[in-house]
Specification:
The chain is α/β, with parallel strands linked by helices. Helix content is 44%, strand content 16%. The chain is built from ten helices and seven strands. α1 links the parallel β1 and β2. The protein is globular, with a radius of gyration of 17 Å. The termini are far apart. It binds 1,4-dihydronicotinamide adenine dinucleotide. 1,4-dihydronicotinamide adenine dinucleotide (NAI) binds next to α1 and α7.
């Protein structure tokens, strides 16, 4: 059987109702996977089974996790809120809810399972935010989030970047957490992608985003990102662990070479 064949696999996809999540569900099904779609909105297509979830609400996450059967082979954490949603919703959905769902599903994962987190080019500054990230990791819960965000200076403007920085760091920290079971975690970092939330990003990021868009030949499409998520769920990517894979038309390389004077 091909390493790219997913016909024996069941993959949970969050955010399956729109954008990158919907396209990932579609492409997973195209290579034979069974897809369990989780979203606050019901996906119109491409899922075998839909479970409603509100990733900002621990009780809803617990209910959804309880409904998922044992024996899942992958988890694509794709649901996310854009920067304009505000610090608390962004940190809940893009980080705390994602982490709670993931940890709740580890025991239901088959050995060799894959976890794929959709981070962002917006998280590339994580090495400069290590103290803030550690502060968040040691303190933040759903209950004390407002207080911790205030303490750490995570306001509405900073929250989306910070959420993605935390996610990339957490992915790398978990490179070997479930190694004995062959379960691995990676993330994919898209640049700007044409989905319903792109307009929101461009508005929030203002001039910086306009500059970025000028050097890019085009924005990404969900069809550019989904195949990478599918590959990261397949056995073909078995030795990729704790990685952050840019999928951004070259923007990560552009920013890094610029920053380092190359
Ligand atoms: P989208 O808005 O098309 O899809 C997001 C999905 O997440 C929606 O189906 C929405 O219902 C779901 N969602 C939002 N809040 C939820 C909650 N509380 N509970 C359950 N589901 C919830 O957006 P898109 O662009 O497909 O975003 C997917 C991921 O890609 C996000 O994590 C985003 O941060 C990331 N990303 C997007 C980029 C872009 O330019 N579109 C660039 C880089 C990363």
């Amino acid at each position: 059987m091909s390493l790219f064949d997913l016909s024996e696999k069941t993959i949970v996809v969050t955010g399956a109702a729109s954008g990158i999540g919907a396209e990932t569900a579609k492409q997973l099904k195209a290579v034979g996977a069974k897809v369990i779609g989780l979203d606050r909105n019901k996906p119109e297509q491409h899922v075998d089974h839909y479970i409603e979830i509100d990733l900002s609400n621990p009780a809803s996450i617990a209910n959804a996790a309880a409904e998922i059967p044992s024996g899942i082979d992958g988890l694509c954490n794709i649901a996310g809120l854009p920067p304009t949603a505000g610090a608390l919703p962004v940190m809940k959905v893009n980080v705390l809810g994602l982490q709670m769902l993931t940890m709740s599903l580890i025991e239901k994962m088959s050995d060799g399972g894959a976890i794929v987190n959709i981070a962002s080019l917006a998280g590339l500054g994580w090495p400069d935010a290590v103290d803030q990230i550690k502060g968040f990791q040691t303190k933040a819960t759903f209950e004390n989030l407002a207080q911790v965000c205030e303490e750490l200076g995570v306001d509405d403007e900073r929250s989306y970047f910070f959420a993605k920085e935390v996610l990339i760091a957490w992915t790398m920290q978990n490179r070997w957490t479930w190694r004995e079971r062959g379960i691995r975690m990676n993330c994919v970092s898209p640049g700007p992608v044409e989905t319903p939330i792109l307009k929101d990003f461009l508005e929030t990021l203002g001039e910086r985003a306009e500059e970025d868009m000028k050097v890019m030949d085009r924005a990404g499409l969900p069809t550019d990102i989904a195949p990478v998520a599918v590959f990261m769920c397949s056995d073909a990517s078995a030795w990729i662990r704790g990685a952050n894979i840019p999928c951004d038309g070259g923007m990560f390389a552009h920013v890094m070479t610029g920053m380092n004077g190359l």
